[in-house]
Amino acid sequence: MINQVIELAERPDGQPSENNFRIKEIETPTTKDGEVLVQSKYISVDPYMRGRMRDEKSYMPPFEVNAPIQGGVVAEILESKSDNWREGDLVEGILSWQRIQTVRPELLRKVSPQVQPSSLALSTLGMTGLTAYFGLMDIGQPQKGETVVVSGAAGAVGGVVVQIAKIQGCRVVAIAGSDEKTTYLENELGADVALNYKTTTDMSEALKTACPEGVDVYFDNVGGEISDAVIPLINKFARIVLCGQIALYNETSIPHGPRVAPLLVKRSALMKGFIVTDYQNQIKEGVTALSGWYQQGLLKHQETVVEGFEKLPQAFLRLFTGEKLGKLVVQVN
Amino acid sequence: MINQVIELAERPDGQPSENNFRIKEIETPTTKDGEVLVQSKYISVDPYMRGRMRDEKSYMPPFEVNAPIQGGVVAEILESKSDNWREGDLVEGILSWQRIQTVRPELLRKVSPQVQPSSLALSTLGMTGLTAYFGLMDIGQPQKGETVVVSGAAGAVGGVVVQIAKIQGCRVVAIAGSDEKTTYLENELGADVALNYKTTTDMSEALKTACPEGVDVYFDNVGGEISDAVIPLINKFARIVLCGQIALYNETSIPHGPRVAPLLVKRSALMKGFIVTDYQNQIKEGVTALSGWYQQGLLKHQETVVEGFEKLPQAFLRLFTGEKLGKLVVQVN
């Protein structure tokens, strides 16, 4: 069986490219006592990983050059030298971009056989779903009848936020970057209004029309100019949930823009960043809520699946060009 | 007895000046049933009032041109046509800049005779003390051993924040604009380090040295470039309390600066604006805590008192030039 790994060949400067990655063949390691040998089934590509490519302090340590990229992986146990873990079990964890690897099972969560397809453990019922759930529910605290604006709304996190906000009884205004996406948001995910920021000439005006009672919660996946159009519309006691700032991830210096502090004072408003691991002690609560909505048909599954381990770098680069709907996952075959 | 009022003569464009105010003599009104007639003793000048001079929606309605300026006043009741209020009582409320006026007592709070001098009801035991208390305790949530940075630290709110943060067992780094103020902050108010931003050539470096373990709470009264030096030093889960943005109040267009959202995401940090009236249902809790510390000698009284009703416009203008220590109050005589 071929074993392959994808390493960080060099750190990107600005927009990443395929040159930043290196795929190579390696030996399959021997399973030591206490370890399991796993074969990757689905591998996740996520915007936050761009941050780990920089050599700077952040919420997770940076990737090392000439070492494997790491990210969310659903894998099957091929061999277990650990109690409580059995051959054939499906597991999920932050693992290397590698076809077959050994791992200490403390780093793994079991994926229930009810999660079908198992890639959902990386998306709606996994990291991105939990990101949407905790950010919206804990920081955003949406109340029935409030207006929730979501940027990057057709993305992996945004699509779940739109749906949870509708479940909470909110008016939802979704922002995305193509007519295909806005149609999907309005027709499939239930957004009240979806705006294509690429074709709308005056986003401020369009948002004012879409939010006649102002904005109570802004769930921001994007940052930059889209946020500059949304933030002036916030109401008293608004909550701005900062999930990602993908528009700014490839900047090489600190970007400038309109200062938000004066408006936050005027509106007694809150802005808070977070990462899903801040909620690691509440994962069970999140999974239970998401699974419940999913089983009731209130939460739709939305994934773009790319086939082929060797497509991982290309799939990662697609995150920054917006050419996808929902969660982007690579199926290893 | 002369009666006088100070009106808004015209809205300031940028930095306010004495031309924006008009002092004039008026008749003393007759007290109607249900009203009280009060004589102003101390009148407060506060930075937030600059916002009310603009013709735009904010947390309080704008002042009207050719109508009295309004702000915090401690007054004595000269005549009462309302039950429960007696001649000689001291009261506090948002009243007109006027020597003698009639008022409906629903708008008043009694000032306890134990509050000595009664101007404290406008400062440490009144609006600015409560602003410090709720902002720091509710939003900042300082924990023992954490590092708290305070900008505008020698101001009315800042000076109380410094002292409460010390009471909470924090390391306190205070920023102010003169050596007189930094000496006062270190020697009188107990700041661990006080930095004069006007003479410090590299604030970023000075702050790094003063905060070897990073910044957990930043209580910001100022905004602008000082915040730009503090914010990059925040720790994971830091809280940025936005109380005022005096550096930006006189701006005539939306100021630009480094975007903070990417860093808030990286550090899972919170930034929240507020105004003391957000806590109007908890005033008693705040006054009790502040009075307790004041009686124990843990909280020092710090006021700059200007004498003369007609000095109100000048006193207000001093807020923007920084030439004062603690709370600026005008004693009417």
From TrEMBL, chains A, B:
This protein's record includes keyword Lipid metabolism: no
CDD domains documented for this protein: PGDH (cd05288)
Residues in coiled coil: none
Pfam families: ADH_N_2, ADH_zinc_N
Domain of life the protein comes from: Bacteria
SUPFAM superfamilies xrefs: GroES-like (SSF50129), NAD(P)-binding Rossmann-fold domains (SSF51735)
InterPro entries: ADH-like_C, ADH_N_2, ER, GroES-like_sf, MDR_fam, NAD(P)-bd_dom_sf
Domain Enoyl reductase (ER): 17-330
Gene Ontology molecular function terms on file: oxidoreductase activity, acting on the CH-CH group of donors, NAD or NADP as acceptor
Keywords: Oxidoreductase
Listed Gene3D superfamilies: Medium-chain alcohol dehydrogenases, catalytic domain, NAD(P)-binding Rossmann-like Domain
Protein name per Swiss-Prot or TrEMBL: NADP-dependent oxidoreductase
Organism: Membranihabitans marinus
